[in-house]
Amino acid sequence: MAVLLKRVLQSARPPAALGRPLGRREASLGTDPGAAVRVRFAPSPTGFLHIGGLRTALYNYIFAKKHQGRFILRLEDTDQTRLVPGAAENIEDMLEWAGIPPDESPRQGGPAGPYQQSQRLELYAQATEALLESGAAYPCFCSPQRLELLKKEALRNRQTPRYDNRCRTLSQGQVAQKLAKGPKPAIRFRLEGEAPAFQDLVYGWNRHEVASVEGDPVILKSDGFPTYHLACVVDDHHMGISHVLRGSEWLVSTSKHLLLYRALGWQPPRFAHLPLLLNKDGSKLSKRQGDIFLEHFAAADFLPDALLDIITNCGSGFAENQMGRTLPELIKQFDLTRVTCHSALLDLEKLLEFNRRAGGTMTLFHFENCFTLADVPDFVTYRCSSLSQGKPFWKCTQARITYVFMQLCKQVPLFSRLLEGPGVNLSQDVLNGELKKVSEGLEGTKHSNVMQVLRVALSGQRQGPPVAEMMVSLGAKEVRERIQKVLSS
Q: Fewest beta carbons less than 10 Å away: which of 26, 362, 381, 478?
């Protein structure tokens, strides 16, 4: 900050030209066709990951994988007063649970780290110094009380609140006097000149003349932390982000960001703003709803594939809406040019049906990975003195789970004959007895383990109604098909 204050003294003069002019490629936001695709999901850890955030992350992930690119997780934690303990860890945990883990992240590391903005303050200071030196930025000494009065006055007059750019015209001497009094200033960016037009990959050509409707924005607070506008520009540049896929609420801010890119002499990425994900009645998803957080769905034993399926099915970006798409199919079918400007309406009441279909299309890989190291003591026939000793034998445990499943598959003809019997109650009773006989025939395996394996194979969930009851409800044909799908994967 000391270096910045020296630049502050130099900034009280008419601004120089705001960087170099944009070339033809930059004006159209074109990028080098040979450049690698790098996208980022950049949530703020002021809350746990919810289904709206999952949708933004998913679209970034499938776009990256479709173009053999990299998917980056960056945590925008510069608002230190609103951080929620455990939220940063939860975000990465839930991305991994959903099957869309980042290639680079605070946990994974990577060549463009660190991946938390609170650890990148030097980069923001350097960018601010360059803007002060060119005259594109200036110090603001206005107190929070004065800014609040400006806001109240504007609202009283039914106007949009905006900063009146009072400190923009301070002379070098006035700046020196104010610095001598002690309070550190915030740094504001001059909104001057015509905002550049840009072609959004979803919304088409846009231009927002922010200078005529907004006051000069703060880019660096007096505590040395950046605001979103500066931080996202600096980070996207230094991380080599090629495409920014983010929510449409940031569409009007893009012109402001492009002015920052121009002032810093950097080429911007391409932008694609995704329409909002709303409740089925058109209202906004709210964290206060409680049931939109991913940990809620995980605790309720919903399959990740079901969530990915429903949030892509209700939106756009694909040739047609269809249920039951797996993640590889989503990647293959995704087309950014098919994303429309219309908000996506999410009907969570249909999630049970999506979950049933996701369970019905479970592959052997998904089946095996429904079990964790916590299952080791039940499935292995040897003893370990600690759970950590069981880790080297996890592949053996997977083989054991698969063996149990394969033995159960041999009984499918028997189950089919029983299920096609004359009475549902009789079939269910007989089925329970036959399932116990099958368990007794598998040496070293508990009956409860056999039921767990069969339940996961049929429903994709480790908890639920009794297996015999579920088999009767599904019917012989569906039981055969679901087991065959696992076997043929």
A: 381
Q: For 351, which DSSP code?
A: H
As a whole number of angstroms, the distance between CA 332 and CA 363 comes to 18
More confident residue, 244 or 474: 244
Average pLDDT over residues 56-64: 97
Whole-angstrom distance, CA of residue 232 vs CA of residue 117: 9
Which tokens in the block code for residue 350? 């249909």
Query: Which tokens sit at 426?
Result: 């009789």
Say how far residue 228 (Cα) sits from the centre of its chain. 17
Per-residue 3-state assignment (H helix, E strand, C coil) for 140-177: ECCCHHHHHHHHHHHHHCCCCCCCCCHHHHCCHHHHHH
Query: pLDDT of 103-146, one tens digit each?
Result: 999 999 999 999 999 999 999 999 999 999 999 999 999 999 99
Residue 66 bears catalytic tag: no
CB atoms under 10 Å from CB of 111, counted, come to: 8
Nearest to 408 by CA among 456, 358, 442, 365: 442
What is the reported pTM?
0.72
* Active-site residue, from 287, 391, 410, 436: 287
Alpha carbon distance 453, 371 (integer Å): 9
- What SS3 state is found at 23? coil
Per residue in 325-339, is it b (16+ CB within 10 Å) or e — as a string?
bbbeebbebbebeeb
Give the model confidence (pLDDT) of 336-373 as tens digits.
999 999 998 998 888 888 887 776 666 666 676 666 65
